[in-house]
Amino acid sequence: MVRMPSLTTMPKRIADLPARAEVIPDLYRTFVFPNRIREQRRHRGLQKLMALSVRLPDIPYIRLSKIERGEVVARADEIKRIARELDLAPADLLTDVTDPEFDIARWAQPFQDGRPVSAEEERFAILLAAALRVLRNGDATLTIAALDQEYALPPVILSRLENAHKTFDRWNDATAAAVCRLFGVADESALRKIVQDRYRSGELDAVVWRVADPDTRALRSRERIAALSAELALSTRPARRASGPPTGTKRGAQPELVSLEAAPSLQASSGQAALRELTVFGTPFTGGIIAFTPTEDVVEAPRRAGARAFALRVCRATLGAGLPASAIVIADPDHRVTVGGLAAVRTAEGYRLVSVTFDRTGATKGYSVAPDLELDLDALDPADVVAVIEAVYP
Fold it and tell me: How many CB atoms are located within 10 Å of the residue 205 CB?
């Protein structure tokens, strides 16, 4: 039986140390993909994961284990292969984490190793993760390659340290010594002191909550599972562009802006969701902005597009030649923005297209090539950052 600290005995926030940043320690921070794989595997008589693994040679056992344990989010093709071997529909392997009856503690219990949980060690793992992110963010020489070659911290271990996947007392001596060298201290005692001092000084305030907040972890899990579910249901039939010349604003005229809320009334529909057509919005505006004005063009909505999806002409190659001005993107507020994807950021004048990535502190950034700019997406209203789910090339 796993012994977990009760809510009454464990400090509610790391700030109770005392310190500055108010962050909730998340005891289940490693479980980003709750699923039903273990349940369904055992239900079909495969008591050991290896019995399933031998049927799935394309998925390494270690990765399959991490998927089942919820430590990594499976790809759609992996879920399909697992479901096929279990004679299930892929959706049957997904967990509805939005269900009020879902309890992450109950789901995670079979994957806990039975060791008592130390609130102090949990806190330090979180603070160390934040301190590592801040340290790397402040020193451009501390690349992943440099940490691997110079400090013997390979990417897998570095990732687990920066996400506090286990407490520091459970790392081996070699890893502990490597982290001490990285922080320029002689031993673990000095490491713990310098990390605590940096936390109390406020250096970690902007980062620590990203590691420790259970609400942030739960939100990301919901978004990732929803996106995976949508991908599993996605038809392979591509969207098409209907005929009709684009209509823009007259030279020198101020474009007429249309609110996103009003856009659905302008959408043409065939009466069937699979054949829904979207009006294409977008005329060029200054500074790489796309004015949200309707044109005479329409494109077929992807089957995974939600009710609020809209089509936006790129207008200028602000993200480079890979997304030319003539392209049309499908933006959908009902999908999550994903790292490695694109987003349409709403401004007062219209929309700006950006590519989405993380910086080394874990902050979500949006980048544009022309003009050359960087946006802090975490600082924006989430309603103003819309996922791009598809591009159409006329």
Answer: 17
Query: For 95-140, what is each residue's pLDDT tens digit?
Result: 999 999 999 999 999 987 777 778 888 889 999 999 999 998 888 8
Phi, psi of 260, deg, nearest 5: -60, -35
Pairing of strands 277-284, 328-332: unpaired
Whole-angstrom Cα distance, residue 264 to residue 273? 14
List phi, psi (to 5°) of 269.
-135, 140
Residue 350 backbone dihedrals phi, psi, to 5 degrees: 160, -135
Q: Which amino acid is at 100?
A: P
pLDDT per position as a tens digit, 343-383: 999 988 889 999 988 776 667 888 888 888 888 887 787 88
Spatial contact of 71 and 37, defined as CB atoms under 8 Å apart: no
Strand partners, 280: 311
| Mean predicted confidence (pLDDT) in 160-184 | 92
Let me know: does 164 contact 29? Beta carbons within 8 Å.
yes
For tokens 């590592």, the residue is 132
Q: Are 331 and 302 in contact (CB under 8 A)?
A: no
Place of tokens 């989010």: 73
Strands annotated E in the chain? 277-284, 290-300, 310-313, 328-332, 342-346, 351-358, 364-368, 373-376, 385-392
Length of the chain (residues) = 394
**Alpha-carbon distances, residue 128 vs 182, 195, 328 (angstroms):** 12, 6, 44
Check residues 185 and 358 and name the one with the higher pLDDT: 185
**What is the rounded CA–CA span in Å between residue 38 and residue 104?**
15
